[in-house]
């Protein structure tokens, strides 16, 4: 397998100490060593979720499994749910809710933008009495469009409406400040293979105190993803089912590094990389797909010029340069490329990948002033670099 | 973490090359390398399931997730299901089926025994017309009791009844001959962390052709575990959701070793270890929990003498000797110890652990002739060892 640089929005490049940690010998998942490991990891995830009150549970699944857990434990047949999709993963939340019989109403937002807090507020106010929403489904960061919501504003718009709020932060958490308690969210879901830069296989679900009562009255079927069972076992330092021990080891090692670096510098790194990639694209005359004020810090979506096949560019980048980037999903297939900022990537990696991108664009017939993209990215790094370089 | 020997029935000790394989760098789960990996692993699992016709799908979950996938895709509200539990994991299958609204009828079997084929046949014949069973739930190997079913006989008893047969072989597959096609099973479930000796995180589900049609008419809700979606993505060399790439790497490496050794020698090794452990227990005057003819090859359950606390023995073995064995689950808690044969364990490991067990039993007040257990195990190894020692 030739060396390649992963710039897809997950799975991301995993740092060597984390990979090494995943290869530790197996232990009894019902023994004292795993208990200590599980409790340590759950405790250290809490500040990343921005919570003291919520319980953090680990599920052996991808992020999608975590989303199913959130929805199927909280909502069921006939529950009126307001979904606020801003891309493919928001639509996935809708599909999950409909699978479990929910009556889903959709607040539409143009792809590339974040949800408008006023539109959300108006939608909630229009749904009174019988029509009141039992739940609201939000996406923090949407990798399919390179956009993210301003969750603080949405939290303010939601406040007081009484609905339970489920937030998909699979590709957002740990890459920017997140305040679950302050924002009043009930369940927040993330996964190992995104900003935490651990191999995939683990979903982490934070559950606020008032969510537990709701689950008692919800009859939607769930077994593997039963969060109350997960909580009962977590109280013993266990999981109900055999957990992916290797990935938990990896998460523990990744949290070491996260804490050593400090959250603020981790957030800054993601924001800086995203800014550099956007600056590069703009200098090359390309259009950023996400709207101003809604740019994701974990992935940048860039429109390729009309007549150019985005997927052909991706293939050339992968085959000739070992640089792996994302393409468009759903209705954006072939129209955009997506460059992630998560994982064990240095500024050097980013600059190299952007240079490779320039060559691939030129080869594909895009007219550009070669080097201008990398130059713009370099300027961002020089202007924003912290005194002690990351 | 001090060195310890894992004799629990999963997760098991993983061989060094497999651990190393799990620590390989991440790749794009939608790229050509993962496609080749996924297709290679699925193809190599087929002979282990004893199938040419079935499709083998990989799910990012524990074995329990695979069981939920099997049940929720095949059966739903009001379906009459015959469950044939022989221990805790058979009861888990019942709980899953009831969660999804199935009308579950239970064929009771004394714990420690396998299902009686004639009793099964009679039960099926008594359920005619409207009362006909839509499905049958079987356990291949039951780690909670150290027993296993004679699946060939059960398959013969079932033949022609028309019901769809779901088999939990989480702790059985790869440790003995399995013939899915010949036995006419519709879905067989296994997991990575058992006889294949890979870290946990992956369920492997084999689905026979006629099962797919059944799924079209089944309305039970499933999203993460939707097997048709898994099949659609498998056709592209992908999984619907981000897979636990590290564990798939590990499975690939474990299959290298499995094929190098050859299935027959792998089966013989499990059977020989189980026989040696049983011989040891019997020489020490202890009772094997499983009935004659129903002994598991992957785990031996041993009753501790009345008045002796099995869990105290386990704790001493773990703390003083680094030997980790299982205890009783459910109604057997405190009454039995369970010693697994799966994983990267040598005969030396087995002999060492049995010696340590003798000391722990003596310390706990069990009257025994020290060394007689290990002696009996040694005899089994000497009598049954293949010319080229494993």
UniProtKB/TrEMBL annotation, chains A, B:
The keyword Transport does not apply. Residues 26-329 form the Aminotransferase class V domain. GO terms for molecular function: alanine-glyoxylate transaminase activity; L-serine-pyruvate transaminase activity. Transmembrane segments: none annotated. Substrate binds at residue 338. Keywords: Aminotransferase, Pyridoxal phosphate, Transferase. One of its GO terms (biological process) is glycine biosynthetic process, by transamination of glyoxylate. Its cofactor is pyridoxal 5'-phosphate. InterPro entries: Aminotrans_V_dom, Aminotrans_V_PyrdxlP_BS, PyrdxlP-dep_Trfase, PyrdxlP-dep_Trfase_major, PyrdxlP-dep_Trfase_small, SP_NH2Trfase/AEP_transaminase. The modification N6-(pyridoxal phosphate)lysine is found at residue 194. SUPFAM superfamilies: PLP-dependent transferases. The keyword Transferase applies. Belongs to the class-V pyridoxal-phosphate-dependent aminotransferase family. Heterodimer of a large and a small subunit. Soluble hydrogenase catalyzes both production and consumption of hydrogen from suitable artificial electron donors or acceptors. This subunit catalyzes the tritium-exchange activity. This is Tritium exchange subunit. The lineage of its organism: Bacteria, Bacillati, Vulcanimicrobiota, Vulcanimicrobiia, Vulcanimicrobiales.
């Amino acid at each position: 397998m030739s060396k390649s640089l992963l710039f897809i929005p997950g799975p991301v490049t995993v740092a060597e100490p984390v990979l090494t940690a995943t290869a530790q010998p197996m232990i009894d998942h019902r023994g004292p060593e795993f208990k200590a490991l599980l409790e340590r990891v759950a405790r250290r995830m809490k500040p990343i979720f921005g919570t003291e009150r919520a319980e953090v549970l680990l599920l052996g699944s991808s992020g999608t499994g975590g989303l199913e857990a959130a929805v199927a434990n909280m909502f069921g047949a006939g529950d009126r749910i307001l979904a606020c999709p801003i891309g493919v993963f928001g639509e996935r939340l809708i599909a999950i809710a409909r699978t479990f019989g929910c009556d889903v109403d959709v607040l539409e937002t143009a792809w590339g933008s974040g949800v408008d807090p006023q539109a959300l507020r108006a939608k909630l106010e229009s749904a009174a009495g019988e029509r009141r929403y039992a739940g609201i489904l939000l996406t923090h960061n949407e990798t399919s469009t390179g956009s993210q919501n301003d969750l603080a504003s949405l939290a303010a718009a939601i406040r007081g409406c009484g609905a339970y709020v489920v937030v998909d932060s699979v590709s957002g958490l740990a890459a920017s400040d997140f305040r679950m308690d302050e924002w009043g969210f009930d369940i927040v879901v993330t996964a190992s293979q995104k900003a935490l830069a651990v191999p995939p296989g683990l979903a982490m679900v934070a559950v606020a105190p008032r969510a537990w009562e709701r689950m008692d009255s919800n009859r939607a079927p769930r077994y593997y993803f039963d969060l109350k069972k997960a909580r009962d076992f977590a109280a013993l330092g266990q999981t109900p089912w055999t957990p992916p021990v290797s990935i938990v080891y990896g998460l523990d090692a990744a949290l070491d590094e996260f804490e050593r670096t400090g959250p603020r510098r981790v957030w800054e790194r993601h924001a800086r990389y995203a800014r550099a990639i956007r600056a590069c694209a703009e200098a090359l005359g390309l259009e950023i797909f996400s709207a101003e004020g809604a740019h994701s810090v974990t992935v940048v979506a860039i429109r390729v010029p009309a007549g150019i096949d985005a997927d052909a560019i991706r293939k050339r980048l992968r085959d000739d340069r070992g640089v792996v980037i994302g393409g468009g999903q759903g209705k954006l297939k072939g129209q955009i490329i997506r460059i992630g900022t998560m994982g064990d990537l240095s500024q050097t990696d980013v600059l190299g990948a952007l240079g490779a991108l320039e060559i691939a664009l030129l080869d594909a017939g895009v007219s550009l002033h070669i080097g201008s993209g990398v130059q713009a990215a370099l300027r961002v790094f020089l202007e924003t670099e912290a005194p002690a370089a990351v």
